[in-house]
Amino acid sequence: MKERTAELAVVSNKSFQASTAVNLHHYDISSALQTTLEFNELIAIFCNKIQATVPHNSVEYTNDEFGLSFKRGIVGRHSCSYALKVEDQQLGELKLTRTHRFGKDELAMLESLLCCLIYPLRNATLFHQALQMAYTDPLTQTHNRAGFNDMLAREIKRANRCEQHLSLIFVDIDHFKALNDEYGHDCGDMALAAVASKVKDSVRGSDVVFRYGGEEFVIMLIDTNLDAAAVIAERVRTCIESQTLAYGMEVLNITASLGVSSLRGNENMESFIKRADTAMYKAKQTGRNRVCVA
Questions:
Q1: Is 106 a catalytic residue?
Q2: Structural domain count, the chain
Q3: In this predicted model, what pLDDT tens digit does every residue of 138-162 receive, in sequence order?
Q4: Could you name the domain of life of the organism this protein comes from (predicted)?
Q5: With contact defined as beta carbons under 8 Å apart, do 159 and 165 qualify?
Q6: For residue 162, what are the domain limits?
Q7: 232 and 261 housed in the same domain
Q8: Which residues does 179 contact at the CB level (< 8 Å), separation at least 6?
Q9: Does 199 lie in the same domain as 120?
Q10: Which of 60, 93, 215, 216 is catalytic?
């Protein structure tokens, strides 16, 4: 039986401090939760700590702001759910399940213990919001080059460890300098934002778009081989070409050249990027508005 989702809110530091002082169990949980700013790790630590007090078979945590969905265990028939927030800040939803109903005393204990989780989740939210701002290009609302470098280093390690594919698509707007020179930088900015929007609309939800620099974008495709990446690149190219932009009384037709590469064995980051970049320049040198692979 599914229980109604409850809303757990802490409205002041005073209430949180009072809850942590209830007993040593609360103090132990609070101390453990100070060790990380990662949402999934916070939920895992919390659930491990409360297992003896509030036994459960599975946990699910969702956070729409950051697109998170953390699940662990085997889902049981009975559940209790809490929409977590502090003041007006939403912190996600936590659901526990098991085979038999949660008792009133257990739910009261769980709600008391959840107060220990609220502020670590708030700190994690503030931290990741700051990261998002630091890693976002304000003009195109894509991730920036710093974000690309950090994420690519992590994904290369993960791909090698898990023996999965990893691909890159470099996208460069054709004749962008001429567009800027003829119509001005405001027009160039509009074109960049429009192309970025088209690229984001034409890739999958698991793909990540970055502004690499100037008029150049890069798409990271996790667990995607070279053939599949080339198909996606062609779809991106077609979407950009099909877009007609109006600037003042002028109608602008934008195209782009794309280069695709997939990670090879234990290849390093520099080599991986260079091959995609080289493929993109080959597309430009052989006529533009096309896809080349390397």
A1: no
A2: 2
A3: 999 999 999 999 999 999 998 999 8
A4: Bacteria
A5: yes
A6: 145-293
A7: yes
A8: 173, 187, 188, 191, 252
A9: no
A10: 215
